[in-house]
Design a protein that fits this description.
Layout (H helix, E strand, L loop, with lengths): L14 H5 L61 H13 L4 H4 L5 H6 L2 E6 L3 E2 L9 E2 L9 H10 L5 E6 L10 H14 L4 E5 L7 H9 L4 E3 L9 H5 L4 H17 L5 E8 L5 H13 L4 E6 L16 H13 L4 E4 L16 H15 L3 H6 L1
Parallel strand pairs: 1-4, 2-3, 4-5, 5-6, 6-7, 7-8, 8-9
Amino acid sequence: MASGRATSRPGSATPSALADYTPGMARELPMYSPPGGHGHAAAEPLTIAMGGGAFGEPAADGSVALRRHPDWIRARMPSGDNYQDLKRLLRGLNLNTVCEEAHCPNIGECWDQRTATIMILGDTCTRACGFCNVKTGRPTWFDEDEPRRVAEAIAQLGLEHVVVTSVARDDLPDGGAHVFADTIRRLREAVPGMGVEVLIPDFNGDEAPLRAVMEARPDILNHNLETVERLQKPVRKRARWDRTLSVLERAKVYAAEIPYAVHTKSSLMVGLGETREELSAAFVALREVDCDVLTIGQYLRPSPRHLPLERYYHPDEFAEMKSEALALGFRHVESGPLVRSSYHARDQVPGAELKRLRRQATIGVAGPTPTEATLR
């Protein structure tokens, strides 16, 4: 099926249903109720995602909206000494974190593990994806000295793993790839041994920008597929299904040419009107390009201006999707309602299991040193 093509068969939500949505909710979103608390029902109830009607109309059972999330959409309040310390340090370093900008529900857990996601290349994106809350427009900010400043700031944070991402910068000749590459190299110099992950745009599919990033040797090259093939156009606008898969595939090829070991990673949102069959096809497509790490999380609508939320997935469904993806050969899968692209990122780099065992052994035998306590 071509990317973004609408179909009228039962069991799917068409792209036009997403593109022509109207603000507000007129009914309760469907929520999966597993029989006996586990597994799939013999016949799932009719839902929006499974053909239960257009957005804004009554559900098949006549239910009306409750303007709240289900009980399992709950994030714990940020706390812990590491979290407070990192928050204090970031305030003084003028670093732009996605964790705060996107109001990530996992900020407390990630910061307590000394993991953070830093945004480079400004705060204005040249694309306007229907799910994203980042400001869109014509960027006016650029600073060639940013990689040095970021590395010097990160060196003060005592991080064990950093994720570097950016807005899309289609206004720049290489999409900002040289800034990514320089940032990776300077981070290596400033903080030897720290895991470095980059979450990159697609650079319009060009070869040279991706090569430049891979030559800087990130531990993880992350590029998100976001949704199933049928919904690419309304959800991602200028991005393309085949282009995203090509970025992930070529990243592995370029790393092998260097050579060095890299893990590739991608993320999917659920709740935009996709079917489970389409999600399974996306898992397979990612494994066909040797993607190593997959994260799956619930889409939550940032505002009435964004694409409507079509369905909540139950935690049992996320567990089932994790099992399915691991069976296909993914090295690491994070799947849950509040999972986001950088969730548990430090555990996904090559050699992460050995590092974890060393941390546990050191702490278990002698108790944590001040440095080890910081890096936990």
